[in-house]
Amino acid sequence: GENVEQHPSTLSVQEGDSAVIKCTYSDSASNYFPWYKQELGKGPQLIIDIRSNVGEKKDQRIAVTLNKTAKHFSLHITETQPEDSAVYFCTASIGGSYIPTFGRGTSLIVHP
Amino acid sequence: DGGITQSPKYLFRKEGQNVTLSCEQNLNHDAMYWYRQDPGQGLRLIYYSQIVNDFQKGDIAEGYSVSREKKESFPLTVTSAQKNPTAFYLCASQGPGEDYGYTFGSGTRLTVV
Question: In this complex, do B103 and A46 lie within 8 Å of one another by their Cβ atoms?
Fold first, then answer.
């Protein structure tokens, strides 16, 4: 089955800095890669996703990149703000199987 | 507004008791899922249902049961057979076709007393 590795487990940055979270996946058939943000005591929320026919996608301060050859994908947050502090999960799934495999999560702490 | 609602937000269970967690969605999604989250851990799949009257075990189904009698509802029962039920439980639904992303509920925190 699919295996998703996520690094780092904790990331601490100063407000205004950039943050990068990296994931690798094992199944080359995976073609959909959503990212979720989970604030304390709440359910995760989908913040951005990318499909395997695209190498990069941006939405304001967040962007995701995908390297299919290396089976890597990353989340980039620029100009971080304290409200970006949360746990972020990467996921990978194979179209048609529907059930994603989650990474173990990255706790991002943005210091004001 | 369309969404997914979990209740209650907090639940306390005595030893030997069964408890049921509610999950309701008005997104018209066919697929629904239950996950368990322990402190500092990722999400582990308990059960899922891709259509009414059908459901499948996930990775940690022992001690749990579900039903899917209506498209909108996917309740999870934590039975007395689940020896370590204290956790944060998340319900999610998933759209069809190209939209594979999950919509999560706000979670239920279950504590054994």
Answer: yes
